[in-house]
Design goal:
globular, 25% strand, six-stranded mixed beta sheet, 248 residues, Rossmann fold, alpha/beta
């Protein structure tokens, strides 16, 4: 199933958002978690969703990739309505997802982890793109090593590589720097920047490190209690916003 075209027409002189979320709501049972979210992400850019723990950031991402079904609102990707698509349909339409905690298969080898992702996305050529190993050389070196035997930083590279084998146009990452050593954090930041600048990808991530956001992101959105309370270009991420909504 493909994404249906939006009924809205945009002026040809404007750059349409790659991702547009309108009135998005979600509840776990009787508990409303997301409240009428409005959000846009420009094509070929990096956007970061920020906020304290438990405010709804991961739930927002899971709604975007189809792992949760919103109770109201619309999700448009490349101007097409993706609201009612299942997760595997969104993956086939070019959405890659790197979940929080990596969620690799610990008993499978690195190569097997990557091949499983290809099968799930219905890629038929059967070969892992060379670009994945070029992006993360350590995965090439450890093809036959089990995922559970890798370090935390190596597992995160595998989790991102697993999403990249599907050749996504839109990559969604949930806290990719969590629990990782500083040199790998820098490497991941440089990788996602190159994916945008060299491959034209659009990237959205949940991220807690303000310095990382300022260095690698183009835009930000701060969430609190299931609502976006501040949004803008990364240059607008000022000290008062950080103190009010992000400081512990």
């Amino acid at each position: 199933m493909s994404m249906e075209a939006s009924a809205e027409e945009h002026d040809s002189g404007e750059t349409n958002p790659y991702l547009q979320v309108s009135g998005l709501e979600f509840s776990y049972g009787e508990v409303k978690v997301l409240h009428g979210l409005e959000f846009q992400l420009a094509p070929q850019s990096i956007g970061c969703v920020m906020g304290r723990n438990g405010v709804g950031k991961t739930t927002f991402l899971r709604n975007l990739v189809g792992l949760e079904s919103s109770s109201a609102g619309k999700i448009y990707i490349e101007g097409k309505n993706a609201t009612n698509l299942e997760a595997h349909e969104r993956a086939c339409n070019g959405i890659g997802y790197v979940p929080q905690g990596r969620q690799i298969f610990p008993l499978l080898t690195v190569e097997e982890n990557l091949l499983v992702a290809m099968e799930a996305a219905e890629k038929s050529d059967g070969s892992i793109p060379a670009s994945v190993y070029e992006t993360f050389p350590v995965l090439d070196q450890m093809r036959k090593r089990r995922g559970g035997d890798l370090s935390g930083g190596q597992q995160q590279q595998l989790a991102i590589g697993r999403a990249l084998v599907t050749r996504p146009k839109f990559l969604v990452l949930d806290e990719p720097t969590e629990g990782i050593q500083p040199n790998v954090i820098t490497m991941i930041g440089e990788v996602i920047r190159r994916l945008v600048d060299e491959q034209g990808m659009t990237i959205l991530l949940v991220e807690q490190y303000v310095d990382f956001v300022r260095k690698y992101s183009d835009s930000f959105a701060v969430m609190n209690r299931g609502r976006f309370v501040a949004q803008g270009s990364v240059g607008e991420l000022d000290a008062s916003t950080i103190h009010k909504h992000l400081s512990v």
